[in-house]
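Z., the sequence and structure:
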Amino acid sequence: MLTDFIPYDFGFWQWLGLFFSALCIGLSKAGFTGITSVMVPILALIFGAKESTGIVLPMLCFADLLAVIYYRRSAEWKFILRLLPWALAGFVLALFVDSLVPARGFKILISICVLSGLVVMLWNEWRAKFARRPQQAQSDQAQAGEDQSKKARFSRFFTQAFFGITGGFSTMIGNAAGPVMSVFLLSMRLPKASFVGTAAWFFLIVNYLKIPVQILAWHNITLSALKLDVLMIPAIGLGMALGIFLIKKISEVHYRVLVYILTVVSTALLFL
C-alpha cells in the first residue's frame, strides 16, 4: 500500500491538489514565473503553512535543476551576481525575525512591496515612452546627462538591494520570491529566454542554499516529505515539458504581458 511507503492517508482531492501543485512548479520553472503562488494556499490546507514549505522546497530544487539544464546558456550572470549578496542578507533577516512576526504578516508586506514596485516600473516605462523633454543648450544637456547617469547608478544599486533582500527574505519565509524576481527581471527588460534562464540559475542557487537551513533550523524536510516529493517527479516533469512547449509559442511582447498578469495574480494570492 502507498501508506506503507509514506505515512500520509490522503483522499482523492488531496492527491489532486498535490499533483496540481507539482504541475504548477514545473510550469513556473519553464517560464510561467509566479504561478507557484497558486499552489501555496492549496498545500497550506493539506499540510499546514510552515510544514508545507518542507514539502515544496525539494520539488522546487528538482524543477530548478531541470530548468537550468534546459536554459543553461540563457542566463544573464551579471544580474545574478549582483542580487545574490543581497539575497543572502534577506536569508539572515528572515531567520532573525521568523519567530517575531507571523508569516502571514510578512506575506502581506511582501505583496505590498511587489505591487508597489510593479506600479513604479510601469509608470517609469510609460513616462519614458510618452514624455517629451524640452530642448536645452548643449552645455545644459551635458550636465543633465551627467546628473542622469549618477541617478541611474544610484537607482540600479537601490533596485538590486531592494529586490535582492526582498527576494531572499520572501523565499525563506514562504517560497514566495517568484513575483519579486519577476518584477526585477521585467525592469531589466530581458528577452524571454534570458528572463527564464536568469531566474532558473538564481533560484537554483538560493533554493539549494535553503536546504540545510530548513533541515537543521526548521526541521520541516523529513524522510516522509522526500518520499512524497519523489512521487511528484512525473507531475513536475509534465509541467516543465508543457511550459517549454507553450513558451515557444508565445511572442516576446505577449510573454511580457503574461508575466505582468501572473505577477499581479500571484502577488494578490499572497494576501490569502
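Residues 132-144 have pLDDT under 50 and may be disordered. The chain has twelve helices and no strands.

Let me know what you think.
H.
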